[in-house]
Amino acid sequence: MTDRDLPTTAADTTGTGDEADNATDEAVSCRGLDYSFGDTRAVDGLDLSVRTGEIFGLLGPNGAGKTTAIRCITTLLPVPADMVKVFGHDAAKEKMAVRRLLGYVPQQLSADAAMTGRENVTLFARVFDVPRRERAARVEQALDAVELGAAADRMAATYSGGMIRRLELAQALVSAPRLLMLDEPTIGLDPIARSSVWEHINAVREATGMTVLVTTHYMEEAEQYCDRVGLMHQGRIHALGTSDELREELRERRRTASGPAARDDSVPTLEDVFREVAGQGLDEEGGDFRDVRSTRRTASRVG
Ligand SMILES: Nc1ncnc2c1ncn2[C@@H]1O[C@H](COP(=O)(O)OP(=O)(O)OP(=O)(O)O)[C@@H](O)[C@H]1O
Known about the structure:
This protein has 303 residues and is of the alpha/beta class. The chain has helices spanning 10-13, 66-73, 95-100, 117-127, 132-145, 161-173, 191-208, 219-225, 243-256, 260-263, 270-278, 289-295, 298-302; strands at residues 26-37, 40-51, 55-59, 84-86, 89-90, 102-105, 179-183, 211-216, 228-233, 236-241.
């Protein structure tokens, strides 16, 4: 990737004119966040703190409330005051200030198949109000950062699933966000495309210092790429830490337990930790988990 010219973060390029931005080491803070759709309590007293500069993984099965939590943080869903803050800005009271700091890649397709890669990214640059004189250069930088420079003039309809995900990443990066939020960025991709997406996320994070909040239910990706993870189940986080910490805590609990668990001194996996806190495996909730995964294939969404 050619990240040489990427602006470091939105604060460096646009600023918000508000001291709250730099007054906290917390990129995201949720305190007792609740969100219901009718009788369905999607998020149920969520406490979450994402540190500035980290890659934080929100893990959980279908229906755990990850997308709802993310949409509350992006201000797309309304929340009461003092529940959600982004770099110190209240998501209820300072919606626009929060939005200016965010890049968001939703689960649903956000690229237009009938436009070229460059046209798609340019559209986002306009929507996010990238200054006109900087626009062309910033679009090139974003495309280069995800290695789509050579394919920039092809229609997005001709892109592979992995390229589309990288295009969506470029769209989110063009406004130089301080916080990049990705909802299941690798769902439906093959293993090579999945690691390519992660490598680009990682490289951009290193080049710019931005914070990344990502949802996934791929435990192995979370272990490999996230600095810390939160295991989410039924609307709240049940365990939070580095994957090493979470596994070691479970190992320690097993050591001090009585019965068969005490005899098991193997190093637990993150899946074991999830099973311990949720009483079930990550793939077991909802029954249709695998169907959902396959119907969300990025490539078919474009066709
Ligand atoms: N627009 C909606 N209307 C009604 N119920 C909803 C809506 N969106 C989500 N829900 C419900 O809220 C709960 C949490 O859903 P959410 O999409 O946040 O979970 P998730 O962890 O992101 O799962 P997924 O990976 O399937 O998106 C689920 O029970 C879901 O059915």
